[in-house]
Inverse folding.
């Protein structure tokens, strides 16, 4: 099971990133737990300077932008 | 297996560049067609009289809307490509170990080119301060980044010309540098929320180097995103501007928005604060007002207040700053903007 975290305090881009991630998870048909992290103290535990951020299995893979579905697919498969 | 590995990557890249060249050519063709097309529709199709109130207003609207939309798409694309070479992580590394003064100047300049959204102000602030960048230098960045906003600069360029756009960028830089130095000198570190100082350093962050295809794709995405967000404001703003252009008599506003009206600058700054994110709608209206006698200093002060002093950003920053520091921040920036407004009214 993959653990995914979407970092960001509820801005429009954070919601879009979460939606894209859910779409990819569904398309891949994998089992994943998606958690939204909105608390800044929690967010800042990752090396991040701009939101939204995407964390896959505790590793920060994207920050400050909305990655494409293809990119997210690659990270989830790896 | 038999082919060299680079082969499959080269083709999409080539296709992207070819497509880009095609779009660029279409862009220039369209840009040159706007004026004749707007005139033709207003004066031939609608059969309006040249020089009449309605005719002028309609021609103005039909010319300005496509012009601004084309300029916005083209320039935002170029700016996004430029910004793909910068990131908050790189900016933080560049600012590390810089003293006050030089640090403020560099921070303000990096504020223009670093991709930044005010929704990220908190992680950025924490990340900067925690890595040892002085408070005043961090503020220079946080003032310049939203104030010298790409939509505002492109629209100023489209409706006022490059001189006003340049003046706007220059005064935005000076305000960010000076306000940052002032805040730094006041030693206000104790007014940063305590939890910020307790945070552990969290490493250097992501460093990715996108390919050209990725840069172009992402730039295209940001064009779509920004145009989708601002077009209603542009439309409404230009419609109101067109009405003012056609119907308000020449120099009707000299009395209330001209140089002689001393209170017009602070009034413009106050009026600008609640208009956050509506730079796209405000600029066309302001451009028409200037035509009718409003002075440039007042107009620039208004513009900077619209983008630089935004209520949502202040609310976001309240998470990391105590009220006293928020007050100093807003007060210093407002004071600097008002001063700039007077200065331009005096000089120009």
């Amino acid at each position: 099971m993959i653990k995914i975290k979407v970092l960001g305090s509820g801005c429009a881009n954070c919601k879009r990133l979460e939606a894209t991630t859910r779409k990819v998870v569904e398309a891949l048909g994998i089992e994943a737990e998606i958690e939204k992290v909105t608390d800044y103290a929690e967010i800042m535990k990752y090396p991040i300077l701009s939101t939204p951020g995407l964390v896959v299995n505790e590793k920060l893979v994207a920050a400050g932008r909305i990655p494409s579905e293809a990119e997210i697919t690659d990270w989830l498969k790896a | 297996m038999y082919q060299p590995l680079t082969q499959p990557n080269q083709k999409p890249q080539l296709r992207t560049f070819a497509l880009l060249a095609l779009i660029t050519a279409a862009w220039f063709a369209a840009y040159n067609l706007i004026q004749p097309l707007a005139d033709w529709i207003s004066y031939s199709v609608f059969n309006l009289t040249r020089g009449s109130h309605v005719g002028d207003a309609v021609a103005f609207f039909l010319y300005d809307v496509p012009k601004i939309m084309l300029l916005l798409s083209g320039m935002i694309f170029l700016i996004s490509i430029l910004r793909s070479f910068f990131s908050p992580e790189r900016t933080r590394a560049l600012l590390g170990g810089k003293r006050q003064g030089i640090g403020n100047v560099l921070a303000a300049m990096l504020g223009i080119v670093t991709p930044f959204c005010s929704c990220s102000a908190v992680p950025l602030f924490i990340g900067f301060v925690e890595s040892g960048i002085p408070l005043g230098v961090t503020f220079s960045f946080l003032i310049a980044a939203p104030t010298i906003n790409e939509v505002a600069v492109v629209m100023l360029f489209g409706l006022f010309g490059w001189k006003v756009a340049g003046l706007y960028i220059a005064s935005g830089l000076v305000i960010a540098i000076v306000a940052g130095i002032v805040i730094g000198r006041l030693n206000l570190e104790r007014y940063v929320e305590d939890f910020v100082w307790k945070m552990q350093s969290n490493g250097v962050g992501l460093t990715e180097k996108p390919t050209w295809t990725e840069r172009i794709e992402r730039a295209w995405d940001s064009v779509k995103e920004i145009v989708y967000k601002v077009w209603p404001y542009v439309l409404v703003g230009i419609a109101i501007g067109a009405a003012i252009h056609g119907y308000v008599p020449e120099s009707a506003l000299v009395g209330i928005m001209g140089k002689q009206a001393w209170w017009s600058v602070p009034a413009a700054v106050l009026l600008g604060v609640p208009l956050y994110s509506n730079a796209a709608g405000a600029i066309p209206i302001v451009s028409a007002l200037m035509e009718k006698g409003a002075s440039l200093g007042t107009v620039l002060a208004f513009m900077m207040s619209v983008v630089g002093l935004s209520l949502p950003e202040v609310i976001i920053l309240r998470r990391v700053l105590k009220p006293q520091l928020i007050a100093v921040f807003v007060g210093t920036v407002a004071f600097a903007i008002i001063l700039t407004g007077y200065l331009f009214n005096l000089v120009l």
Q: What stands out?
A: Chain B touches chain A through 28 residues (CB under 8 Å).
